[in-house]
Amino acid sequence: MLGLYGLGNVANGVWMLASPRSWYDGLPSRVPDFGPLNEHFVRDIGGLFVVIGAGLIWAAVRRKARVPAIAFAAAFTWMHALVHVYDTASGRVAAAHWLLDLVPIYLPAVVLALALRSALRGARS
Questions:
Q1: What is the domain range of residue 31?
Q2: What is the pLDDT of residues 38-74, one digit of tens each?
Q3: Fewer Cβ neighbours under 10 Å: the N or C end of the chain?
Q4: CB of 114 within 8 A of CB of 73?
Q5: How many domains does the chain have?
């Protein structure tokens, strides 16, 4: 699971770095609802997705890396989810984003929280 999620993050990040306009327009989660395209910002965040993905891939193959790598990825993912909660709850984007963001934003936060709990349990044993 860590390796697949890591690969997904790397792929998303590489897409953001290589073609910010295509990423901005191409995601089904309606990224344009959140504001105009800023190619520099998309590339900045793309770099973060590549680093998070690489960390999760590393955690998949190195047991000692699991807790710190998952903790870092989970922290970013939860902060990202909370920003989406704020934007949707405050009316900055349409209420449809509760559903649109369910799988790509909120589900990964829950999955990584559970993965971190599991990694912490494994580190204690």
A1: 2-124
A2: 999 999 999 999 999 999 999 999 999 999 999 999 9
A3: C
A4: no
A5: 1
